[in-house]
Amino acid sequence: MTSFFILALAAVLIWLFAESRTTRIVGFSIVGVIAVLVAIYLVWRETSGSTQGHVPQATVPQPPAPKAEIFEQSLTALKPSDVGLAQIKLESGVETYFGIDGQQYERPDLKSWTLSGEVKNLSKQYAVKDVTFNVRLYSCPSYYTAPFNEVKFEELSSICSKIGERSVGLYDLKLAPGSAKQFSQALTFANQGNAINWRFWVDVTRVVAQLQ
């Protein structure tokens, strides 16, 4: 079929070139159009071939940035048991008021507190950067007389009522292995209940290592 079309086209072109000057112009126009179409086809074929021959390279996964690796390691290098607490105190604030005699007096402000003590790095390998505490405040019955530094968590949980709880963070401590540091931080408890014969309990919940 293609050969017949080519032969027919050739016969028409020969007749056009041989007939007259006007038909020769038409013949040259047809030849020009054919030449343009052939050139476009050849360019398309070359472009299509080069695209198919190109094999995209597989994407190589990049390793995590060093800073990200260090950050992840700092969160897992130390455990809460690697931090020791000593001399922990929770002290109420002080508020002033005027008595019926017009004189100014002071009394405990049982809505405002200060947590203080000593935090120590028990690890022999890593420095401590940040420490987070969980502080719980309890209201106890009048017969519970255990001193503040001798309370037991089991007794607080079974005998007393928890009236406040919150997290407290100490940051950028830069505690070398074996070293200790004193701290003091003011705090309040959201929606705190009445602190009657109160006691408290402090746990270390999170430690971040200083790796740089």
Summary of the model, kept short:
With 212 residues, the protein is of the alpha+beta class. The protein has two domains: 52 residues, no CATH class; 145 residues, Immunoglobulin-like (Sandwich), CATH 2.60.40.
* Poorly predicted segments: none
**What integer is the average pLDDT?**
83
Total domain count: 2
**Into which percentage range does the β-strand content fall?**
35-45%
Rg over alpha carbons:
44 Å
Instruction: Give the strand order, joined by hyphens, for the main sheet.
Output: 1-2-5
Structural class: alpha+beta
Number of strands: 6
Oligomer: single chain
- The helical percent reads 25-40%
Global outline: elongated
| Strand and helix order | HHHEEEHEEE
Give a quick account of the main beta sheet: strands, pairing sense, barrel closure.
3 strands, antiparallel
Second CATH tier, the architecture of the largest domain? Sandwich
**Total helical segments:** 4
Using the coordinates shown, work out and report the CATH topology of the largest domain. Immunoglobulin-like
Distance separating the two termini: 80 Å
What's the level 1 CATH class of the largest domain?
Mainly Beta
